[in-house]
Amino acid sequence: MANNVYEVNCTNLSKLTCKLLYVTQAKYEADWHSLMHVHPFCELFYVIRGEGEFHIENECYPVREDDLVIVNANTRHTESSKDMRPLEYIVLGIEGITLFSNGRNFSVSNYEDYKHEILFYIKTLLLEAQNKSNYYDIMSQDLLEVLIVNIIRRTKTELSVAAPQKTNHECAFVKQYIDEHFNEAITLDDLSERSHMSKFYLVHAFKKFTGSTPIDYVKKRRLKEACMLLRTTDHSLGQITGIVGISSQSYLSQIFKDEYHISPTEYRLRCRRSEMTE
Known about the structure:
278 residues, alpha+beta, Jelly Rolls, Arc Repressor Mutant, subunit A
């Protein structure tokens, strides 16, 4: 009788302490205008089908079927889609973990060769969250840990696990509030009241946290959104002015030129010329 014994040796990957917060399934529709935003937890996006782009901090990445996008806590991001092939994806919100890719706070990798493994766990997590059968929370936690280990195993670039980075919670809250409401009227008094910090301390702490004062950050955030709309839409400058929450078209042109040393119209033309030569 043959008897094969295989030893199981311990690895240097310690026990994961992450927690699954939610699972969602989404399809990008024509009327969906997603704004740059942050979360105080990690998100994993698995593209089921379609094509589009992920905007992460100041960079843009094309995504397609079987791409997995990892965005760590407090990292600005949003997504856009191709009209003919709209994005469909499943998102996991995960607390208590940071997944670094070569030291970066985000990564985009394709798992077409391993979709039978990665996508199996993601779809099973979705079903567990939808059905909520007995002990689904325990099942979900175990499935999540296996999924993360599998992702680490199958990622071509180095992917390492770390505890969440500690941040100034008040400043992170103010930054997230601005990222989500930059197109609304925002004053220093309002931010001070919402964060329960004095205006003086808020300006000092926020500048140390982001490199900008809160009001300067609002302006820069609006300008970055204006840049994205100039690149990716045919909206008029007047429409963009309203979308990003700036008071007038002339003021947008003024601060845009002050920041980028070019007018919004010339910026759009340069982007279009660049696309034509690619």
